[in-house]
């Protein structure tokens, strides 16, 4: 069963899996998200500290962090 909700990006911790090439074309992805929105959700699971870890969407999360830094208060602070 899926439970979709928006959560603050600052609650999403680093993944335990290292992803090669996560920085590749991150600016292009950020621009796409800014123009079209987040089309595919970021999949997370909760940890014991009421935080979250990314299962799928590490590059999208990185792009959202970049957008939130560049455009604070414009809604890029939640996934």
Helix-strand makeup class: alpha+beta
**What share of residues are in beta strands?**
5-15%
* Number of helices, counting only DSSP H or I runs of 4 residues or more: 2
Arithmetic mean of pLDDT: 81
| Rg from Cα | 12 Å
User: Biggest sheet: strands, sense, closure?
Assistant: 3 strands, mixed
Pick out the low-confidence regions: none
Residue share in helices?
25-40%
Strand order of the largest sheet: 1-3-2
- Overall shape: it is globular
Order of helices and strands: EHEEH
Distance between the termini: 19 Å
Instruction: Report the strand count.
Output: 3
Secondary structure elements and pairings:
Blueprint: E1 12-13, H1 26-36, E2 43-46, E3 52-56, H2 58-70
Parallel strand pairs: 1-3
Antiparallel strand pairs: 2-3
Helix pairs in contact: 1-2
Structure, explained:
It is a single chain. The protein is α+β, with helices and mostly antiparallel strands. It has two helices and three strands. Strands 1-3-2 form a three-stranded mixed β-sheet, with no helix packed on it.
